[in-house]
Design a protein that fits this description.
The structure holds two protein chains of two kinds. By secondary structure, chain A is an alpha/beta fold. Chain A has helices at about 5-20, 75-90, 105-115, 130, 160-175, and strands spanning about 45, 55, 65-70, 95-100, 120-125, 140-145, 150-155. Chain B folds into two domains: about 1-100, Orthogonal Bundle (Helicase, Ruva Protein, domain 3), CATH 1.10.8; about 100-150, no CATH class. Chain B contains six helices and no strands. Chain B has helices at about 1-20, 30-40, 60-75, 80-90, 105-130, 135-150. In chain B, helix 2 (about 30-40) packs across helix 3 (about 60-75). Classes of the chains: A alpha/beta, B mainly alpha. The interface between A and B is medium-sized, with 16 and 14 residues.
Chain lengths: ~180, ~150
């Protein structure tokens, strides 16, 4: 019995490592501490000059809202843009955009080029709103319920099957 | 040859100097507060490079977090308050040294548990060496036969 112990340990370790490799766990992705908490308060200028400032009050609409941190200089944001367009179009989800450390003119150019999925877009010029939301890099997308509480955070771009497999189920659960 | 070597070493020396962070950042006017801020920065994880502190990271976010640390210390905030300000947004993960609480008891206890396991294994091994299994009757007879044959 005892001589099978080393073999047992090796098999166990192989199983553990294989399990870690095959799961779609991303070691860069840390659960947000904001889940279950009301969205942090903020007030920032809107991207279009004739719209009043974007504040956390814009998120309390009685229905689920998505808040997407993006930037024109961010390549993964370009990659996930189709998903955002689909969310706004096909799934009729209100989307709020926050341009993270982005030159307003460039953010406008980005949305003109790829289409604008956002019902309202705010400018986080110095990145302080991003820090209040615990954002470690763009893109990040937050799902807010009707009462303004953060329910889910999608870290990184919404590409591949992450729209169908991760974001939509969370959204449906709130609807 | 020697000159070339000297040049290379000089270049290395210069590049190390260039790696020094915060060349473009203004330290706080009060040296005591700056020292406090610096000490705190060493404990805060850079969320982009993850295994670096914000004190020695060049990432944009690290720069922003350094600015926040300096700002709050300058306002007279205690290091504990600044720490909890960051934990509030980024979770315990932002601290390079995990706090001791229920969810981390096992983490903190694990080195001691490992030592305990090793001690138990070593004790078990010693016993096995010290007390070999007694000989069976067959074996006694075999030894007797061998000894007799030698004589």
């Amino acid at each position: 019995m005892k001589r099978f112990l080393p073999l047992g340990i090796v098999v166990f370790l192989v199983a553990v490592f294989l399990g870690m490799m095959l799961s779609d766990r991303n070691p860069n992705e840390i659960d947000s501490v904001l889940i279950g908490r009301p969205a942090p308060a903020f007030s920032i200028d809107s991207l279009s000059a004739d719209t009043p400032p974007l504040t956390e009050a814009d998120l309390k609409t009685g229905e689920p809202v998505l808040v997407n941190f993006f930037a024109s200089w961010c390549v993964p944001c370009r990659a996930e843009h189709d998903s955002l367009m689909e969310l706004a179009g096909r799934y009729r989800v209100p989307l709020i955009g926050i341009a993270y450390k982005n030159d307003p003119a460039k953010a406008v150019g980005f949305l003109n080029e790829l289409g604008n999925p956002f019902s309202k877009t705010g400018l986080d010029l110095d990145g302080r709103v991003g820090i209040d939301w615990g954002v470690s890099g763009v893109p990040e997308t937050f799902l807010i319920d009707g009462s303004g509480v953060i329910r889910y955070r999608h870290w990184g771009p919404i590409v591949g099957d992450s729209l169908e497999a991760r974001l939509l189920p969370e959204l449906e659960a709130l609807r | 040859m020697r000159q070339v070597l000297g040049t290379i070493m000089l270049l290395f020396g210069l590049s190390v100097a260039a790696l020094g962070v915060a060349v473009d950042e203004k330290p706080l006017p009060d040296p005591a507060q700056e020292a406090q801020a610096r000490a705190l920065m060493k404990e805060i994880r850079c969320l982009v490079c993850q295994n670096q502190s914000i004190e020695d990271s060049n990432a944009d976010l690290a720069r922003d977090l350094r600015a926040i640390v300096r700002e709050r210390i300058a306002l007279g905030d205690s290091p504990e308050n600044v720490r909890s300000y960051l934990v509030d947004r980024y979770g315990d993960w932002v601290l390079l040294k995990p706090p001791i609480k229920t969810s981390t008891y096992f983490l903190w206890a694990s080195p001691f548990l490992a030592v305990l396991v090793i001690v138990f294994l070593l004790l078990g091994r010693k016993k096995a060496v010290a007390a070999p299994a007694p000989l069976s009757e067959d074996e006694e007879a075999q030894i007797k036969a061998l000894l007799e044959r030698q004589e």
